[in-house]
Amino acid sequence: MQLAMIGLGRMGANIVRRLMRDGHECVVYDVNQDAVAALVAEGATGADSMADLAAKLEPTRVVWMMVPASLTGAVAEEAAAVLESGDILIDGGNSNYRDDVRRAKALREKGIEYVDIGTSGGVFGLERGYCLMVGGSDSAFAHIEPILRTVAPGVGEVERTPGRSGDLTPEEQGFLHCGPSGAGHFVKMVHNGIEYGIMAALAEGLNLLHNADAGVREAEHSAEIAPLEEPEFYQFPIDTAAVSELWRRGSVISSWLLDLTAAALHENPRLDGLAGRVSDSGEGRWTVKAAVDVGVPVPVLAASLFERFASRDEDQFANQVLSAMRLQFGGHKELPAGDVLEAGGRKSDSA
Amino acid sequence: MQLAMIGLGRMGANIVRRLMRDGHECVVYDVNQDAVAALVAEGATGADSMADLAAKLEPTRVVWMMVPASLTGAVAEEAAAVLESGDILIDGGNSNYRDDVRRAKALREKGIEYVDIGTSGGVFGLERGYCLMVGGSDSAFAHIEPILRTVAPGVGEVERTPGRSGDLTPEEQGFLHCGPSGAGHFVKMVHNGIEYGIMAALAEGLNLLHNADAGVREAEHSAEIAPLEEPEFYQFPIDTAAVSELWRRGSVISSWLLDLTAAALHENPRLDGLAGRVSDSGEGRWTVKAAVDVGVPVPVLAASLFERFASRDEDQFANQVLSAMRLQFGGHKELPAGDVLEAGGRKSDSA
Amino acid sequence: MQLAMIGLGRMGANIVRRLMRDGHECVVYDVNQDAVAALVAEGATGADSMADLAAKLEPTRVVWMMVPASLTGAVAEEAAAVLESGDILIDGGNSNYRDDVRRAKALREKGIEYVDIGTSGGVFGLERGYCLMVGGSDSAFAHIEPILRTVAPGVGEVERTPGRSGDLTPEEQGFLHCGPSGAGHFVKMVHNGIEYGIMAALAEGLNLLHNADAGVREAEHSAEIAPLEEPEFYQFPIDTAAVSELWRRGSVISSWLLDLTAAALHENPRLDGLAGRVSDSGEGRWTVKAAVDVGVPVPVLAASLFERFASRDEDQFANQVLSAMRLQFGGHKELPAGDVLEAGGRKSDSA
Amino acid sequence: MQLAMIGLGRMGANIVRRLMRDGHECVVYDVNQDAVAALVAEGATGADSMADLAAKLEPTRVVWMMVPASLTGAVAEEAAAVLESGDILIDGGNSNYRDDVRRAKALREKGIEYVDIGTSGGVFGLERGYCLMVGGSDSAFAHIEPILRTVAPGVGEVERTPGRSGDLTPEEQGFLHCGPSGAGHFVKMVHNGIEYGIMAALAEGLNLLHNADAGVREAEHSAEIAPLEEPEFYQFPIDTAAVSELWRRGSVISSWLLDLTAAALHENPRLDGLAGRVSDSGEGRWTVKAAVDVGVPVPVLAASLFERFASRDEDQFANQVLSAMRLQFGGHKELPAGDVLEAGGRKSDSA
């Protein structure tokens, strides 16, 4: 079928490629004309304006936006201006599901169907397909199903879940109508929240393995911290690259994120050159806020978010306050990294 | 090669089967004679005592214990009594790595090599093979390598990590010499600690999805908790079984634990009959204690452990203390589930 | 000076009493006419409507609302309708600071000054005074300062902070102009967030003391959980009531919340009759959400909030998911409280 | 009565001073002869060896050790060598209660009573007295009660807990027989664990206040993190020194640790010169490990400990692993502090 794509960054362009490979007809638009030209060279129809894009589509028009979340609002307005009642506007970016709820309501007044699609897959999506979490009306979902089926991974090599039989459901092919407008990005938001938690679990565990030789390194430790009480139990120089490779086979924690970890550690076993200042995008934050709203405890998901904040030193003033309190109640001076406390300094919290 | 297995529970028996399939010769022993008989019927040599077991092996004897962790100490002593200098005693159970360090030291005095093997694979290990994390001397590891190679999953269908080339390393075949005695169970301990974290991330996320319709259910809520502030954003009745199936394909959180989750939710979408009192075995606890010892922050791993404690109401007295404090400072009565606070009761923490 | 109070619940009434004791003139209004009558009997001027209330005040009118947060919006609108440009409307309740920002902006258009006051003090405020966190313009703050000075605790018996000298600042007397509109409730919000954290620290610590005899009770334990490894170290039957009383004197954790804890445990040492379902009001939630917004890690404050959610079984579905996963990968049945696992069941997470 | 003090650091010396003021007779010993001389000048009897110290005491000898935890074992052995059956040896330092359990058992064989005393009070103890948590036999506790009564704060200015009447209990005077050997340090350990939690709650809350102007500073932010979504709600430049002073009066979080915080922030409002590398002594760690042992959830206490680890960059490898994973799945480069991501880089976790 016919579809227009607005936003030809890596993900937008690759979705277009995947659609064209499967015989769909794509009209493409981007502020970057080179990006348009590249896809035109691969068989897409280029558009040089929103109006042009709309003109090149037959009703029912289906327009997929794949732009940075910060631009989605403006682009959606531009697109809505050239669309007609009955047309379908898709947001495949990383929007906050709350914006979907608001936008869908506004567009519904014009008769335009708004569909939010949470899209997972990253750099591998072109080959593997993208996992699609869809929010919107039943009729809109039904209309775009051929597109979704193409963009999604399909069954692939994943074994069928025991107990399932008969026709394959959409979710078994990698796309799902999750609910009304907003539900797609809500599910994607939680997906990313879980991703943060899994990443953190792996990172914390590997950090513990990385320090399993603390008993050997004990002598080098400054007195700044409590001494290792039983150094004989921490004498293991663990090869974390080898261990993460090992766990890929036969272990219960095998997973795609572990695959990536093994690849990263094989490439750069000591992770030289990485400062460990970990960015976060909106989804992890929205997940925690949504959980707080509905009263669902998410200590693991929240902890994984806060670790990222702390990795960027956003805990700095809190830590200074702790040092300041300790100075007050014990007269204990804080020491810069590497320095050594005076005798007895170790008794620092004994107040 | 020849190997004796002590302990013919599910895992011990299946390891024997996997070894025999590959042509290894197995002597088997268990206090349960039926378990012995079953494997003898499949081609194993039965032993009716430790001494018998030792007598049926040629030096260098290799004896693998696969017994509950609480029995390992006693069984190891019995086994050591019939073994000779140069023989190899393997603990494939879920022992605390600290016990390995102690046992290896004691057995070394008798010339017996002690090898600890953390074994992951569960009910699927017979077919898939077991991920093996090995601690012990270089020579012992070299001697038992043919056994490890058979028990491990091998390369299987897992894609090779980008950047790896040449001969396959042991870890690419699912077994690894992690370090000296204790290192195998140390790595297995951390593996299980990570497993707790991943499981918790999935469970928390699914709980949030399960409550994404809180705005619909708002009316039923007792006044016991803060009211939902923007119910319009929590109107999604999410099918968690379908979502967990969906994420198996193309998503960055696809993993074996997600596969299990999808299977469980397909079987029993509302999880009827499960009380949600979650057990924990030692590894999760040991992981947190080890991290505390060496000063590695593990907020996610610890939170996942504490959630399990709380699921069994081990937080009860703490919660009562909180209720008691609140009674003191605000005169706020605590209400049983389902009851409704008097007007103004909601302002409970406003002191 | 002259002030009107809307809302004569415990806090509103006591603030009026405290003001009248110090010679201020109070006009009082509540939908509950008995509450009005009671204060009229003590010397206040009653009002029987908003209009009446406004009529009984001289410009610059100062009106203090002390109503449940859910009613503040409506009451503020009613009050604004009878106020004039230059008048001051105070919200002393537990509003979300975001509502203050919005309301202040709307009222500013009518020339009405909006002042938000976070008020702490609870049942003891009548005697001790209330800690007042004030947001609003400099001129409004200056105008109401005499009232604030009366309502606040004053210096009291609290020792002056070392290094402070000269005239007492407002904060040394228990009231502070924290910033523009919203700043008062923002600071109060964080105050309550901290309160949750302190309460949780005390509750968790006391729970650990309560279980310091776990080694004695070991035999009664079901096999549902990992066995206590060194029961000889957990043989202490601690009297938590006595300990909390003890810590009130000379210890670094002495605090008002500890005083309350000691009182509660003295009254009811086993906390009989308390179910431990802990309510939460909005502030703890808003604190976590604000921290997430600005990227400040608050693992302790968030954990204390999540513990309250879990105390009300809001973790139920997550725990069921965990049980369901465990059933899948190990065939381990979940047991109801009190039951005993079959032999070997303890090895439950060994997959 | 008569008592010997071994270890004349700040706390040991001040306890001696407090005892002498109240008429007790003190024999003092330290490897530092100047410390001995100083107290002799104030009226103590000096000892120049353990044997000398023992000789200068009448049976039943009472010897109080106040030495760094790392030396307690050795000093206890030296002291035991010169004591006789029936004598009492006190450890007032910050020992692990497990060492008390072991030492008490060993000394009991020689007939020596071992008493462990957790001591809180810090630099203010000389004037205020020390909160004393005592473990040991009933008879030993009874024998040393006059000493405890002197060292403890007594009733002081702390109001009696409502509901208490009649004779003052020991805990109302600041000392308590908590249980058998080890119980004193166990209670002190939990006390310090709670202290970590309270300190962290205050520090996190103040950090949030410190960042309440994030909306003003937004422009300066690098694109490394998710943008502030509603900057209009984070426009508060809060004076954290003034706020912490404010909360000392009338607020429910008033506490001694808040007093210290207010003093610290008054002295140094921006906390200049403090790196925020927060040390920890053993108690916080032992608390978490004990909680894990007995299955008590302590998410707040653990989080406060892990924050300290992270403040010293012990999370470094974990953070590098996270950065490495993100590089793998999105091709996102990590940026050093202060740099700016290329357009679209903000979508970093959208995989």
Automatic annotation (TrEMBL), chains A, B, C, D:
It comes from the Bacteria. GO terms for biological process: D-gluconate metabolic process; pentose-phosphate shunt. PROSITE patterns: 6PGD. Keywords: Gluconate utilization, Oxidoreductase. Transmembrane segments: none annotated. Coiled coil: none annotated. Belongs to the 6-phosphogluconate dehydrogenase family. This is 6-phosphogluconate dehydrogenase (Decarboxylating).
